[in-house]
Design goal:
The chain is α/β, with parallel strands linked by helices. The chain has one domain: TIM Barrel. It contains 9 helices and 8 strands. InterPro entries: DNase_TatD-rel_CS, Metal_Hydrolase, TatD-like.
């Protein structure tokens, strides 16, 4: 299994990162994609991923951290994408989060610039969303972004899901589907094409059902897979293999 979105570089894993990876191995989680979130953490992220053949990195500016944004960050990102050509798997985690107090115009500006860099470097993107599907879809269409990517932690409508799929994106399936109350998302994930789905945890955030208030971890990815298999009509092994292949199909340069 591939965890297509986790933040193993975060300090929440500093005390037991190697043990987490060992437990993941025992549970069949073999490969990880770690998106970047802020400029001052990119070097450490790259170093961590270079230390293991199983860890892959993306580079991007997450909307959460734009309070510290300056234009030089985009130049730095451009330079790193050039230096890490053949190693970086995507531009991300980028996106729009309209639940934040950070100015929406600034968010759109930074997101648009990162789309441009992804086009320039021929990379997919990993997209964060919250209360922002309409704006994201509008910008992706306006900029004619054709490299696709992953809509992280998808929780929109079936129509929105289909629009993203038509634009070349996969949908990130995470812990939300383990909650029975997440009826809308579970129904959408059960209905869209299997070829559009990838697995993720977003660890240490977005804990699965019955683990609320605890640190999330990639070790729980098999539980998310089981929840997905229960929602789908295809044989369980077909679902598992499809999620693996879909991740390779949409992200570049993944090492296992």
């Amino acid at each position: 299994m591939i965890d297509s979105h986790c933040h193993l570089d975060f300090s929440a894993f500093d005390s037991d990162r190697e043990q987490v990876l060992q437990t993941c191995t025992e549970r069949g989680v073999s490969t990880f994609v770690i998106p970047g979130t802020q400029a001052n953490a990119w070097d450490n992220l790259i170093s961590l991923c270079n230390s293991s053949g199983r860890l892959n990195f993306a580079l991007g500016l997450h909307p959460y951290f734009l309070d510290d944004y300056c234009e030089s960050h985009l130049q730095q990102l451009d330079e790193l994408l050039t230096q890490q050509q053949g190693h970086v798997v995507a531009v991300g985690e980028i996106g729009l989060d309209f639940s934040l107090s950070i100015d929406s115009d600034l968010q759109e500006q930074v997101f648009t610039e990162q789309i441009r860099l992804a086009q320039q470097h021929d990379l997919p993107i990993i997209v964060h969303h919250r209360r922002s599907h309409n704006a994201l879809i509008r910008l992706l269409k306006e900029k004619r972004f054709g490299n696709g990517g992953i809509i992280h932690a998808f929780s929109g409508s079936y129509q929105e899901a289909q629009t993203y799929i038509d634009l070349g994106f996969k949908l990130g399936v995470g812990g939300i589907i383990t909650y029975p109350r997440a009826k809308k998302t579970r129904e959408v994930i059960a209905k869209v094409p299997l070829t559009s789905l990838v697995l993720e945890t977003d660890a240490p955030d977005m804990p699965i059902n019955n683990k609320q208030g605890q640190r999330n971890s990639p070790v729980y990815l098999p539980i998310i897979l089981q929840a997905l298999q229960a929602l789908r009509w295809e044989p369980a092994e077909v679902v598992k293999q499809a999620c693996w292949q879909n991740t390779f199909d949409i992200l570049v340069n993944i090492k296992t």
